[in-house]
Structure formats: C-alpha cells, structure tokens
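Now for one record:
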Amino acid sequence: MTQPQQRVYQAWKGDNRFFFGGRLIFGPDVKSLGVSVILIVVPVAFFCVFVARHLRHRFRAYDAGYAILVMAVVYTIYVLLLLFVTAGRDPGIVPRASHPPEEDIHYDDLSHDTPIRLPFPRVKEVIVNGMPVKVKYCETCMVYRPPRCSHCSICNNCVERFDHHCPWVGQCIGKRNYRYFFLFVSSSTVLCIYVFAISALYIKFLMDGDYPTVLKALKHSPASLALMIYCFICIWFVGGLTGFHTYLISTNQTTYENFRYRSDGRPNVYDQGCLSNFQEVVFAKIQPSKHKFRAHIQEEVQAPPANGAGEVDDLVGGPRAKVGDDLDIDGDLLKISQRHNHGDIDIEMGGGNTN
C-alpha cells in the first residue's frame, strides 16, 4: 500500500497554521484573531439589541428606522470578511532556497583533497528607480531578500514589501494583503463612528421624550453610554491607524521602513507622487501567490531545462540558486560570477563588497 503524497503545506518550514487542507494560511498567533472578532461582534450585538432596535419606528417614512439595524449588521459582516481575508491569505512569502548559494559555487581542484569554495557577499546593492538599494542575504530562507522584504521572526518567513506583523490579525502584513488590511482598519473606523453617532442620536431622542436631561437619558440607556465610550476609545486606535497608513500609502512607505529609516535621513526611492503611490498600493493588481500550498511536493519539483542551466525548484516551491556561467578549470576564479534570480530581482554575485 503506497503512502499518500505529501502536500506542500504539510512540509512547510515556516511557523504558519494551515486550515481546510492548505486553502487558508494564518500566522502562528491565529488565536488572537478570535479576540479581534469578539471586540467587533460583541459591541455591535449590544448596539443592535439596546439601541438600534428602539429606533425601528423613529423614521416612519419608508420604515427607514429598520435601515439603521440592517446597516449595522451588513457593515459588520463586511468588516469581518476584510479581517479574515487579511488574516487567511499568503501575505507575500518569498520562496526558500533548498541550500545556501555557496553549495553551488565550488570548484574541485584535482591537486587538493577538498573543494575550493568561493565566498559570496551577505549584502549586495541593486538599483531601484535609479538609486542603489541594499539587499541582504537571509540565513534562514537562504535567498537574497528582494528590496522592501524582511524576515518575520514570528512567522519565520521572508515577506515581500513587509509592513509589520499585526497581532490583532495574527498574520504578517505584506505585499499581498496590505490592501485588505488598510480597508479593514478604515472600515472599522467608519463602523465605530456609525455606532457612536447612532448611540448619541438615541440619547437625543430620549431627551426629547420622557427623559429631558442628559443624566436621565443615560441612566435609562446605560448601554448607549458604554457604546459611546468604547467607540470613542476605538476611534483613537483604528482611526489613528487609518490616518497613519493613509500617510504611508501617499508616500509609498511601509511601517517597517518608516520606523527604521526615519532617523537615517535616507531618500525614499519608492515615492512616485501621491496619486501614483495610491495607484500602486491600493489599486494595482495583486500578484498571485508564489506557493501552491495544496500541490503535491513532487509536483513542485521541475526538471532541469534542456539547455543545462540547472535551475531546480525547491520542494516548497522556492527557486533554488543557479549557476549562470560555466566553470572554466583553466580560467581565473576571481572572474567567475554567479547570478541569482528571484522574482524581478537580478543580482550579480561577482566580487562585490561584503559587510
């Protein structure tokens, strides 16, 4: 009896949690997602029961009072969907290599018992928008990180356009889910403002009726007071995040870049102007994941090309390093270079400076 073929997500080297047979990928702190759901659902439930329910007949024309209740429920579902889409998708994980590049750069000298290995730089420079940008080698993933990529110590993955690891979402925020994260925090801000405003309106209606003072109205509806206090606090939090990330998008920065390079005075090579930045970050097409989590492992391994280039994919979908030049035994070893390809980045590994 043959053993079932192992799938990519079952041999995953990161610390992610997979659900529904690898269809959803979460961070290792996925349990915090439940806390976020509670912080959203419970206040809205209180709002629907103790506030919106009493406003159903306040606007008799077209029964508009029911719209207050329906709007709260529908919009909350929308916010929750954004939360789960942000948390349950690949944020832009960079494929790992199967081995470090020095394993590819070797030359067996027949006069020595041990092979000669060429060192490779841990830091290289690439040109982005006409400006030099340093890219670092990741010891864990064994690849040169693309520009704006960073290794998340929580998820144990390199993530493209890494923004931060959000404990409230339980996932890294990167190239493939940043848009949904921004929509989530901005929509949460709108939801808080909505609940706060309608709760205040209900207090106003009570004061126009049998409870002429603010104190009497609040005593009659303590839930409204609690909701207003809760929403006021949350508006400072999610509203502040919305404003901060609006600024980051308009200047084409990430949270990681903003905090790390703020004091360095480095020029922002990615800033193309406010409109172009919003187009790139918010409206551009999201690239598909570089991983097929449900694929069988042997399906992820590709045979070397016919031209002998020797490019072989890693078992978890990551392209391994390839040698671009033939090793000439009689040639000068210092002239031998190795080329690493990763996504849109082409890094020449010749005699670069090391840090």
Observations:
- Helices lie at 32-50, 65-87, 178-208, 214-220, 222-251, 255-261, 274-283.
- Confidence is low (pLDDT under 50) at residues 300-355.
- The first strand starts at residue 17 and ends at 19.
- The chain has one domain: 10-349.
